[in-house]
Amino acid sequence: MSTPTTLVWLRNDLRVADNPALLEATRRGAVVVAYLLDDESEGVRPLGAASRWWLHHSLTALALSIAELGGRLVLRRGRADTEIPRLAKETGASAVYWNRRYSGARDIDAALKVALRGEGLEVTSFQANLMFEPWTVTTGEGNPYRVFTPFWKACQETGEPRQPLPAPDAIISPATETGGPSFASDTLDSWALLPTAPDWAGGLRERWIPGEASAAETLDTFAAEVLTDYHRRDEPGHEATSHLSPHLSFGEISPFQVWHRVRGDLDPGARSNAAKFLSEVGWREFNWNILYNFPALATANYRPDFDAFPWENPDEEPHRTELAAWKSGNTGIPLVDAGMRELWQTGYMHNRVRMVTASFLIKNLLIDWRVGEQWFWDTLVDADEASNPANWQWVAGSGADAAPYFRVFNPVLQEKKFDPRRTYISRWIPSDELYPQPIVDLAASRKEALAAYDVVKYAARRPEADA
């Protein structure tokens, strides 16, 4: 009898190590590994431009890794409910495996599971991309957590996350074993994920190497050399952060791998910072927990009383000009402009500066957080579907566990505290540049923001009948 074939459907898990769906499929028999570019299905958020650049190179690296194991990465484009059953039929698969996702796209997976099982296929999903799945961490009343600290405490009380799984020793291709036809695959170039007219990705190429091997090297370097300085993580001019976020976003490395590497052998200085770093990994888990329970996180206020906030219209002047200045890093506020230029050049921005730039847009320009969230979604290589909107809502005050909603980051004070020698600013703003004057008065715009937030306070206090 021929070896049974399993179709492994990859999504945000572009790795061969610690990939339970792939490993279990290789133990079952022959394997077809597929990646589907789905820009059409409801519940799937199409990738932004910087993420599409990363995806191209990540898939290139993944295809090589799969080929080294004896397999082949099949590329398809289209709706999952059409293409996955079609590919299963073409390959003669008797089983379909995937690693679970936790956004609105989980409804696609649930429907597919029912449909494929109705056709007589075995369908199995696995835990791979979160250490603590949302339905496993709830309050005593069975509700989702809305505050991070008790959430993270509850996660840690569930026990140590499992050890990372090994990569498979080999992948048996059904075409190789049976002599059957190869399966049709799109070419990666046909997807046109890379920018060409113009090619704006030069800075991304200089800064990043996508792929599983680079992710593993980045983690090792961080644990061995950088974690010792993690207590300086808020200083954008100092290299003290992990830079793992895009690798985690695309699943080139798993949180299980990160957890156990950082919990492993470390020098004393690094060990003292490990708990704080792992709590940041926990913040990522918290954001996914929020998205799982509130799928509209990128488009709707988590706190509905913020629906009353009097945002300015970014399509009208002077707000249109102010928004353009923010995007291009020409607001006349050095720390804001340095951050926005770093973003455009590298597809990345230091986390402290992300908070400052977001606060400036929301609270000094009074432009809706959704406008900024969409810009980051398009320009960040680590535009995570949960963390990007959750963090924007955190700054806005409309999200879960948000800072006091009336907090306004003062970019001048933030510069003095975290970049006093202007190391970071001078990296992105040349000293000989004819620099613009500030587009807003920080003190006056802060007062306007506080007045606008009073509208939210009033809306929150109103009786339900008056709402």
Automatic annotation (TrEMBL):
- In this chain, FAD is annotated as bound at 230, 241-245, 277, 382-384
Pfam families assigned: DNA_photolyase, FAD_binding_7
Gene3D superfamilies, alphabetized: 1.25.40.80, DNA Cyclobutane Dipyrimidine Photolyase, subunit A, domain 3, HUPs
Superkingdom of this entry's organism? Bacteria
Free-text remark on how the cofactor is bound: Binds 1 FAD per subunit.
Query: Of which family is this protein a member?
Result: Belongs to the DNA photolyase family.
Cofactor(s) recorded for this entry are:
FAD
**Species, as recorded:** Glaciihabitans tibetensis
Q: Which UniProt keywords apply?
A: Chromophore, FAD, Flavoprotein, Lyase
Task: Quote the protein name from its UniProt record.
Answer: Deoxyribodipyrimidine photo-lyase type I
Q: Which GO terms describe its molecular function?
A: deoxyribodipyrimidine photo-lyase activity; DNA binding; FAD binding
Q: Which residues form the Photolyase/cryptochrome alpha/beta domain?
A: 4-131
List, alphabetically, the InterPro entries matched.
Crypto/Photolyase_FAD-like_sf, Crypto/Photolyase_N_sf, Cryptochr/Photolyase_FAD-bd, Cryptochrome/DNA_photolyase_1, DNA_photolyase_1_CS_C, DNA_photolyase_N, Rossmann-like_a/b/a_fold
- Site (Electron transfer via tryptophanyl radical) at 311, 369, 392
> GO terms for biological process?
nucleobase-containing compound metabolic process; response to light stimulus; response to stress
